[in-house]
Amino acid sequence: MPQLPFLLVDAFTTRPLSGNPCAVVLDADALTPATRQQLAREFNQSETAFVDSAAAGSTEFTVRFFTPAEEIPLAGHPTIATVAALLHAGRVALPADGTPLVLTLQLLHGPIRVEVLPAAAGQPPLIWMTQRRPVFGAVHAPEVVLPLFGLTPDDLLPNAPIQTVSTGTPQLMVLLRDHTALRRAHVADAAGLGRYRAASDFFSPHLFCLGGATVAGHTFARHFGTPPDISEDPVTGSATGGMAAYLWHHGYLRSPEFLAEQGHDMGRAGTVQVRVSGPREAIDAVQIGGTGVVVLEGSLRGDL
């Protein structure tokens, strides 16, 4: 097997060493699912993206996403990272006439559309990902869920349902009353969370509140995992999409366009641009946008 190129890309940021890092392996066609899983564990990022080869000039790529524990059908920051890596490696290029570059990524459960807008001066290109139409799942009991994170039902925003929402990957949406409650949250019972997750309908929990970490933001969030996945994800694109659908559907947002912030308290500040299309009761689509910065390039040994 020839050596395979890989890149480490920080997503949802314009500054290296902030946002959310993702390893992107190119020309990954010959890697088996088992080897991809082992490599994802070796990279030990929240997700690793594997991109198969494509013909020169193609705007369609087969991509798979793996956490250290398992393959997942859709992920936000790896999508941003994948497209940033393809641009950096010269596999795709922005049109010379200034129009957006439109890509199709063939994921585990089918294609998604990605648009890349020309870069502002001195900035990386803005990458917009259209996620899947939201699906609203189970509603969960606050007295069961909140103690898993060292919280009580009083920490929940009054009358806010705890609900699974998926725009491609089902996530548990927990809307807390304020930043103080959000900052106190932690995985207080990892075994209990693992058991609850295994018996439920979500992949991972997304805790958030209204009001950004900075004056520019409209929401602030934290996203938790269980071993062997990382304990907290800096900036979570798929869950931001589900959060946007939740907030718009349940009437917590006045505008369908907003800025979501995450990772600031981890020293990995990230910003996600968000657009929700369609009425609250029948959302058509959720889009998330962000930039990616390549921080490392290398190659995998050919004898893996």
UniProtKB/TrEMBL annotation:
It holds the Pfam family PhzC-PhzF. This is PhzF family phenazine biosynthesis protein.
